[in-house]
Write a structure and sequence with these properties.
alpha+beta, 11 helices, five-stranded antiparallel β-sheet, 11 strands
């Protein structure tokens, strides 16, 4: 929108001083001609802005003019620039909005705090994504936009959801509280039948807003439901404890992929060929995620997990013998 662009130009000039027209055009993704038209509009509105032609020219505000918003401390200023964690904003289509907001905040900061805030944005990076984007580490989400619409429109949502290990999705009508991005994985937090449930967004196979208003429990907020569900997941009620041996040369890779399931590492003198670890898995079949490690990972116990892995490996072997 033109009004947003005019404000962005004003704040960029206030922050940077004289800025070449082509640089403003590149930052705001418009033509240089549009920038000059915007400068004329700002001038007509009473903003003391002017343009200097030539090799060393540019667009600037008259000395001493500024819009001032004070009250932020130095620590508060630095904290604001740590909000730009990559991944979450892009997934919601808000990267451009975030960039625009940070430009406005930078221009509004008290002059003494600007260097610290700018240095923070260049020296500290928050990246919530895991190292490997394989299964369980942030798969592409096809219906995140619909989930977001339901959350902000306060509407009930009908989803087709495929549970782990299931071949076909199940249909649920849910009452959303909100969305949570944890370690690069999006979750829908919602009530289903009046009970709190957690739905991984990358397992949603269909999503449709209904005409019914959301039916949330009175006085319950997203943060409360998320904490409750997170505790359930961390307790892993009904899970399976699995003892695994990992070859040392593959151990670091194993940790990167499965640290979320790790409960304990056995005493290790650093000299043996194998490292023994304990994992907490949701079900016996979940141990099949270890098969890509082939002979570099061995399940020691329980017997039912070993038997399930043996059947899975035999099925693969039979497939390639045909």
């Amino acid at each position: 929108m033109k009004s947003d662009r005019l404000l962005s130009i004003l704040l960029l000039l206030q922050t940077r001083g004289q800025v070449p027209a082509h640089e403003l055009a590149e930052r705001l993704e418009v033509s240089v001609r549009t920038i000059y038209r915007d400068v004329e509009a700002l001038s007509a509105a009473g903003v003391p802005v002017y343009a200097e032609r030539g090799r060393h020219g540019g667009i600037a505000l008259l000395p001493g003019y500024r819009t001032d918003v004070t009250g932020l401390t130095a620590d508060e200023s630095r904290a604001l620039f740590l909000l730009a964690a990559r991944g979450a904003h892009a997934a919601l289509g808000l990267d451009a909005a975030l960039g625009s907001a940070l430009r406005k905040v930078m221009a509004a900061l008290p002059e003494p705090h600007r260097p610290a805030a700018e240095l923070t944005s260049r020296r500290v990076l928050v990246d919530a994504e895991r190292w490997t984007r394989g299964p369980g580490a942030g798969l592409p989400v096809d219906h995140l936009g619909v989930l977001q619409d339901a959350v902000f429109a306060d509407r009930r949502l009908r989803v087709g959801y495929r549970h782990s290990g299931a071949s076909e999705p199940r249909t649920y009508t849910v009452d959303p509280y909100g969305l949570v991005s944890k370690a690069g994985v999006w979750y829908l937090v919602a009530d289903s039948g009046g009970e709190p449930r957690l739905f991984r967004a990358d397992r949603v196979r269909a999503a449709q807003l209904t005409d019914e208003p959301v039916r949330r429990r009175a006085g319950v907020e997203l943060a409360h439901v998320w904490e409750e569900l997170k505790r359930r997941v961390e307790r892993r009620a009904g899970g399976v404890e699995v003892t695994v041996r990992v070859r040392r040369e593959r151990y670091e890779q194993f940790l990167r992929l499965h640290v979320g399931s790790l409960t304990r590492v056995a005493e290790d003198d650093g000299a043996g060929e194998w490292v023994t670890v304990l994992l907490e898995l949701e079900a016996v079949g979940a141990a099949r995620m270890l098969l890509p490690f082939a002979a570099s990972v061995e399940v020691v116990s329980p017997p039912e997990v070993r038997a399930d892995l043996a059947r899975a490996a035999a099925a693969v072997t039979d497939l390639y013998r045909q």
